[in-house]
Amino acid sequence: MLRFLALLLVLVACVDRPAADASGEEIYAQLCSRCHGDALQGVLGPGLGEGSPTASQPDEFIRVTVMHGKGRMPSMEGVLTDEQLEGLIAYIRGQQ
């Protein structure tokens, strides 16, 4: 199991950067859905959808977590631009 998680983290870290004009939904699908689920329900990572602990956190919590990582979640610093990050947050909030 530990090997599987290590491999998963490596694969996530090696994901190509999203296209410059990618929507928040496209970014979520490319970078987040493997761990957080297609419907934000959570898989390896926690759920992010309606009623989740993240839904009650401020946007800054999401910003810091995405850009710097937390626990098993890798940092997306250098992967996402500020504009892409804001689009991702807007998409998550829209789904919540």
Largest sheet: none
Care to count the β-strands?
Answer: 0
Beta-strand content estimate: under 5%
Q: What's the Cα radius of gyration?
A: 13 Å
- Into how many domains do the coordinates divide? 1
User: What average pLDDT do the residues reach?
Assistant: 90
Quickly name the level 1 CATH class. Mainly Alpha
CATH superfamily membership: Cytochrome c-like domain
Shape: globular
Summed up, the helix count is 4
> CATH architecture, please?
Orthogonal Bundle
* Structural class estimated from helices and strands: mainly alpha
Low-confidence stretches: none
Classify the fold: give the CATH topology: Cytochrome Bc1 Complex, Chain D, domain 2
Order of helices and strands: HHHH
Distance between the termini: 31 Å
Helix content: 40-55%
Short description:
The protein has helices at residues 2-13, 24-36, 59-68, 82-95.
